Amino acid sequence: MSLNAIMNTATSGMMAAQTGLRVTSDNIANVNTTGYVRKTISQSNLLSNGMGVGVSIDAIKRATDRFLQSASLNAASDSGRTSVVSDTLNRAQQLFGDPSGDTSFFSTLDDIFSAFSSAQDDPSSSLLRTQALTRMDDFLSESSRITSSLSKLGKDADTRISADVDRVNDLLSQIDGLNTDITRAKVAGADATGAENVQSGLVDELSKLMNVQVTPRQLGGVYVRSTEGLPLAGDGAAKMTYQTSATATGYLTVQLANGSVQPTPLNITSGEIKGLLDVRNTELVNLSDQLGEFTSRAAEELNRAANAASSVPAPTSLTGRDTGLDDTAAMTGFTGKTTIALTDSSGVIQRRIDIDFDSGTMSIDGGAGPTFNPSDFTAQLNTAMGGMGAAGFSGGALTLTGNGGLGVAIQDDATSPATKAGKGFSHYFGLNDIIRTNGYSPYETGLTATDPNGFTSGSMTIRLTDVEGGRIRDIVVDPPVGGTMQDMLDALNSRASGVGLYGQFTLNPKGQINFQSNGVTPVTMSVQADTTQRGVGGPSASQLFGIGPAERSTRGEKFFVNQAMNENPKLLPLAQLDLTQAVGGNPALAVGDGRGALALAKAGDNTAGFSAAGDASAVNMSVNRYASDFSGAIARKSATAASRKDAADAVSSEVDSQRQSEEGVNLDEELINLTTYQQAFNASARLIQATKDMFDVLTGILG
């Protein structure tokens, strides 16, 4: 080997050792720098005719492990999702209060029953009546507060999703831009690890927001793809958009950098955004829906008892709730018997009208009266009242009025009570309701498949989404004008223009419409828009039947105490009409009668039919039992979410620790490298010195 070759070999060794020293120094200097990944050098032998002629630095690389990085990114996504869900459900649980305490939401219902129990002992006490009304107002106010707060949590989630999506777009743009810098540096043989560290930090931040797949590019940098393989960054940055809706399920779309001009649906399975979508579209909606069902049924049972009772003296006018139906549809379907009594201020019956819905007849004071059918019921009832009272039907509500100071009291027959949709005559129309509502819950209209649907205009846009929250499609359905309820169901369930491919709408025996997803490919249903109208100025289909989570999840804030009773507690129905008393005989309503108060006090023990709400199945049980199960379910959800969060955080912490052990700087190891490179540098320097000495000797010989 020539002296020049020896000199070149030593020089290359010195340069390699110097590069190693610089890399080691960088590692030591950044031992505590967040996001810094330890650098290593890759070197190879230089050969000439099979002989070593030096060393070459191939690349300066980061000490990364693709598998540990992938595990870390997935763990970070899971931690982000579970953290959001746990935090939100914990805040939701706090809204209901401690179920074991005296100030929780569920204890306010117990206070109502206790107040009516006290009123039973002294039904004429104004103080006890006022206390009962106050307790009901407390219960309904709490229901409204919680419903409103859950809605606000959903809106907060909407805001956070939009902010996170904006941040994702920013991160994708930066990650894609750094690919160019990294590639340029690698092609030029420069150190690209600084840009790679920055890019890695951006990918880590992105993974907390949404789960992604990351693979290296051949010329440096990374490709970022969604879980479905959609390219998000690497060959241009995609742009993600959050498609939100005030009434329907929100979902994500992405505009690919080199794809179609039409946005592509984007499904993610983890990350903070997924957690926010879950609580916004599912968890909070389910809680609100079940709260609305609970409040609705509690009000129904209290109103059931109230409509089977009367105040003393009876009120001069009873105005029912808006049923959402016309008079013919509202009167159709009743069976059994009921009695309407007009009483004087002493509770003595002045006129008695017995109505038999099975035979379509009325009797007056025990004698013959007019016959009727659903279309002329109101007119025939006016005839039967004979000028002592009046009946009217307007805006979906029935009104009964006594003339000349006479009061109106209603009692269903003891052996064959009037009933429709599981309610008595007065209860169905809400004539003596203590609790009123601005909505139509519990959506049991009493309509059957053969009844006219009554919708005269408009259409309903139904949104179907998959189990991951991704939009499948929006379907526009027009209820057939002039058709029956079955025609309306057929339009909704059409496989060509309805939801028939994904599920089915059904009409239950009480006239409530329910949606059931197909079992093979489960979907969720929401209503994007609804311009339908039943009659002129009537409710939409989603309002009347409670179709879609937007309508159902807001009903908990629509209940309030009957304003007339609130202003005049004497109107509270704490007595019951005694139909054994003859017309003009002894009082049928007595001041000291507390049977109505007792029925109200026991309303929580009555078995009620709870519809499926949220993630709770339909069930028959008492209101008190449902309250206990509901409060327990809320606590279990929160505890389960907290447990999942702790588990995900533990996994993330462990994986990050392993990744840090692999990628982080170890001072002992770096000191060994520093010593090794110093010795290599000194060895190369001595070889150069020896070569110089040999040159000097040769020069001296040649002299």
Describe the structure.
This protein is an alpha+beta fold. The chain has 16 helices and 27 strands. A hairpin with a 5-residue loop joins β21 and β22. α2 (66-96) runs parallel beside α6, α4 (126-187) runs antiparallel to α5 (193-209) and α6 packs antiparallel against α15. The radius of gyration is 39 Å and the shape is elongated. The chain starts with a helix and ends with a helix.
Features:
703 residues; alpha+beta; 5-stranded antiparallel beta sheet; 3-stranded antiparallel beta sheet; 16 helices; 27 strands; 45% helix
Distance between the termini: 23 Å
Counted beta strands: 27
User: What Rg, in angstroms, do the CA atoms define?
Assistant: 39 Å
Helix content: 40-55%
Q: How much of the polypeptide forms β-strand, as a percent range?
A: 15-25%
Strand order of the largest sheet: 13-12-11-10-16
Structural class, please?
alpha+beta
The largest pleated sheet is described as: 5 strands, antiparallel
The poorly predicted ranges are none
Mean pLDDT over the full residue set: 91
Figure out the total of helices: 16
Molecular shape: elongated
